[in-house]
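#struct-queue
[09:14] JT: dropping the first one here, sequence first, then the structure tokens:
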Amino acid sequence: MKSNIITIMKKEFARFFKDRRMVFTTIFMPGILIYVMYSFMGQGLSALYSSGEDFIPQIYAENLPEAFSEMEGLPVEFITDTPKEEAMTLLEEEKGCHVVAVFPEDFTESVAAYEVSSGEEAPQVELYYKSTSTDSSTAYTMMQEILASYETSMVNKFDINQGEGPYDLASEQDMAGMMFSMMLPLLMMVFLFSGCMAIAPESIAGEKERGTIATLLVTPMKRSHLALGKIFSLSAIGLLSGLSSFIGTMLSLPKLMGGVEGVDAGVYQVGDYLLLLAVILSTALLLISLISIISAFAQNVKEATSWVTPLMIVVVVISITSMIDSFRASNNVMYLIPLYNSVQSMNGVFSFEPNVAAVVLTVVSNVVYTGICAGILTKMFGNERVVFSK
């Protein structure tokens, strides 16, 4: 059994790696194009998020001057009866507190008495916020605008967040996790699918079109050996394409993020990459299996490519769930759903919240589904109407 499978794998590897153009376009070109494209995009893709029109920021204020509490029409709500320590905890945990504003005790008097020409430090208002929270970032911007307007009316007699800080409670890891977990699962699934799609139709539908698969089927080889040999070899090539795309993405991320402070791909550890690699490998196996089954029904490569397109749309739609909190897996049972489990596992790794049990369940289920697909492909190879369809 092993010798037959290895023979098929060697045949597929020889066909692929002897074609230099296919090697370049399938393995090297995706990573190169991704790096070049996203490097040029730079700050153009800096995402700008805004909260809903009915959003009213909750500003927890310490020593709030009466001048602010008496203002009418402000698009914020000041809360003054909560201690600073408790408010900071609520802000960090994102439990209804959007900004913590700390005013000096004698703010109004200090502002009135301050002279710009004195050279002394101006009264300072400290604003604590969490930039990984859309609501907190929006509230921070609104509070800055309110204070800036007040400062202008007072002839620049106080400063905002001019101290040592830090005022942004989101860590470098939080920032990287938020951005990467939203983008990379979608990108990785698309890259993996593209790599698999570039080779599977040619290997199966192409051999049907050329008539060479019929020669293989008349040899004393089990149909299951042929199916497994093709799936294993094509998965290995698809994985190389996916890794190339992944490397290009990771190298271009600093430029893609436009130099946003606090975003660094280096915060991921070796364990995170190992979990990601396991998910990528099992996903490549499953995608190759699915595309191989579709290709086996097609009469030629062109037809196989057109039939695979709906599957690509499904993969993209499922991958978008990584950007929507409400679609995230709520329990481990959901990691049995093919393709969705891969997206959610990648999301967990990139957001620094990997569920090892869920990743293991994802990998095992993907391998099981691959085995089922291999069985289906074996049955198809044994059906002459499918193999010799014209």
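[09:21] JT: and here's the second one, same format:
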Amino acid sequence: MIELIPAIDIIGGCCVRLSKGDYDAKKVYDAHPEDVARRFEDMGATRLHVVDLDGAKASHIVNLEVLDRITSATRLVVDFGGGIKQESDLQAAFDHGAAMVTVGSLAATQPELLLQWAGKFGADRFIVGADAQDGRIRIKGWKEDGGMTLEEFVAFYMQHGITRVLCTDISRDGMLAGPNTELYRGIMQKYPACRLIASGGISCTQDILDLESAGIPSVVFGKAFYEGRLDLPALLNRTASC
């Protein structure tokens, strides 16, 4: 069964969602992310994807206190990303309860540093963020080309033992337009050992069931849940449909 990973994106300490990564198009859903995390746990979720959007913009972690409140309030297995550019940020995330970290731009621009961290902390504690558009990696808030194709990026990290890949089709992120199932299916066909996490475009329960049917191991979702278009408790029990 597909692993269900709800997402909490944070700006100014609040739970928000963006459209295509546009900070000017944010929508605030809750001023207390730890309460949102508790609700996910009460529904039966065991995982949580937390993104410090302020940190991503500032190139260092900003909302560490929010991470601490979430991990203190729940038993969710939390992966945390946004602003992790140096080892002190990495260590801080782990010290405040993150089980794993998601690293995006740095994974494309400084792969040797990431591999060094993986050797020190363990490859299983890292998820590489593959933000893609038209088959190419995008970095720095999706504004710049990452200098490699999505396939090259995934192949590099698979060869070096980092198999958790969070792949976001940025043209669909936050748009409720449906996921790029063919993109994710293609990755799994080429790299069947990849622990791929599909991200971007989830609009309803059926989208997730379709990804599951396509053999995708995990999915991250946010806006569809917050907008009331996805029945998470039913999904967790595998009885829901759109």
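[09:30] RK: nice, looked through the second one.
[09:31] RK: The longest strand covers residues 3-11.
[09:31] JT: good to know. The CA atoms of residues 56 and 82 lie 4 Å apart.
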